[in-house]
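pasting for ref
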Amino acid sequence: MQGAEHVLGHLLRRKRRPPSARAQCDAVLLEQVKDVHQANYGVYGSRRVHQQLRRQGIQVARCTVERLMREHGLQGVRRGSRRRPTTPDESVPRPPDLVNRRSAAGRPDRLWLADMTYMRAWEGWVYMAFVLDAYTRRIVGWQLADHLRTDLPLDALEMALWQRRREGRPQADGLIHHSDNGCQYTSFRYVARLADVGGIASVGSVADSYDNATAEALNGTFKAELIHRRTWRTRDQVEYASLEWIDWYNHHRLHSPIGDVPLPATCRVRSQPLPVPPTPTPAGAR
């Protein structure tokens, strides 16, 4: 009986004892960790949460962030596997592969990477087309639809071209546009539209994800960070959420390939230009 009273008394004394300095520090840090996690779609793991805290001037060890997130069930997200929404059209000529798995560029608007993905809503399938600038890593064009006709990626391309016109650059001379060999990207309408503005089509190998790995990684990130985390009722619902996510992706998200900084800081971070894909010789000049 005395042993039980002794244990009970010890527990009561511990309960009345003020929190330790570490516990108080953890409580403050935990709120800051939660704020960063929630403000970024709840997709950041400990590495990106730690980087964002440092960007905000909060000095904390990464192991402390890892411990707090683990103890309170805060996790990042992981990309899933790739499924191809496009089908090659073997009856049409296919542009050559001008990138050869080197999805890097020395300046903006030198190389665009295009791809499509899809998702399921209650009212049916929804398809998304992206155009990504290989240098800035920005999404420069996108479009969402309930079909996989050529109009879908073509509308995404038109958005990217409209951005150029708005910036006073109506032509895209020498711009390489790289995609998979889906029938939409190899169609006459799509290739002709590129040619109209001086762009050059480039197409990767058949069913080889490594030929457009950067664009496919964007698809995986989009689905892991937005699409797979909830149920979608309508296409409009997906579209509005995608608009918000793309704005966050282009202006706030930390990107590991460029040193865990947001995309607006890209040009300031890179001190050395990235390799530039070789400029192709037009078919008519050979």
